[in-house]
Amino acid sequence: MEIVTADRWYRVRPLGDGVTHIDEPHIKPFYRCNIWHVRGRGRDLLIDSGLGVVSLRRQVAILAERPQFAVASHAHFDHIGNHHEFADRAIHAAEAPLLAHPGRSETLATLYATEEMFTSLPPGGFDGPAYEVTPAPATRILHDGDVVDLGDRHFEVFHLPGHSPGSIGLWEAASGVFFAGDTVYDGPLIDDAYHSDIPAYIRSMERLHDLPVRVVHGGHFPSFGRERFVELIETYLREKRGA
User: Fold this and answer.
1) pLDDT digits (tens, 9 = 90+) for 145-204
2) Is residue 226 part of a domain?
3) Is the pTM of this model over 0.90?
4) Per the domain annotation, does 1 fall within a domain?
5) In a domain, 71, yes or no
6) Domain that holds residue 169
7) In the chain, what's the furthest Cα-to-Cα distance?
8) Does residue 68 sit within a domain?
9) Residue 108 and residue 187: Cα distance in Å, rounded?
């Protein structure tokens, strides 16, 4: 398998609403985490940080320009690999212990972090059994209803357990932008991990159903609008309620 140099590892694409999409295109889509950057007046927001096999700060210029507030949508390995590179880090209280002590099994790395994730390998290759997430203890603990303040932009924290106990979304009412983490994305939703909770997932989806979103940026796969958001939620609820 081809080995890719560090300067080719990340893909950076500016979107609307002051949002930049960063991802790792050499990882297959199912495993490829969306990394989101939001420009603020007082500071910038980084949502998730990818696998951690190539430095995010060194390779993505916009992340070195200003201080970043790095929020983890949850503590699975593919979302927190580079959190240790940022001085200000946050996660929901339910998964703060995992960010500080990211065990291979607890972050799902034992199950999923294998060479099969890749279409091309990072510099030095990839040794699945040796892969570990670097500990990154949170400097701020998040709870439902908290606000992430960027100076001119304000994101409300939604605690959305189900996929994992500390899964969160970030909602900006002023713009209709919602960062959904792994709770809602346009692909196969995962509710069978060791700490997933389907009844909690159902409640989280019910809570989100009427949220007046304009655009949704999920933890995986492409972004989408309100119509698809409602469709995904209703499909999940219909399948699980009928199970």
Assistant:
1) 999 999 999 999 999 999 999 999 999 999 999 999 999 999 999 999 999 999 999 999
2) yes
3) yes
4) no
5) yes
6) 6-241
7) 50
8) yes
9) 19
